[in-house]
Amino acid sequence: MPPAVPSDTPRALPPATSAPQAPPPMQPAPAAPRPAAPAYPDEREGRALVSSFLPPAVKDRDGWAADIFSAFAALRIAPTPDNICAAVAVIEQESTFQADPQVPGLGRIVRKEIDTRRERLHLPKLLVDAALLKGSPDGRSYSTRIDALRTEKEMNRLFEDMISEFPHGRDLLGGYNPVRTGGPMQVSVAFAEDHVKEKGYPYPRQGSIRDEVFSRRGGLYFGIAILLDYPAPYTQPLYRFADFNAGRYSSRNAAFQQAVARLGGQALALDGDLLRYTNGNPSAEPSATLQALERLGPRLGFTRAEMLRDLRLEKVSRFAQTPLYGRVFALADGDAGARLPRETLPRIDLKSPKIQRKLTTAWFAERVDARHRTCLGRNRAATP
Question: Where is the composition biased (Pro residues) (predicted)?
Answer without folding.
Answer: 21-38
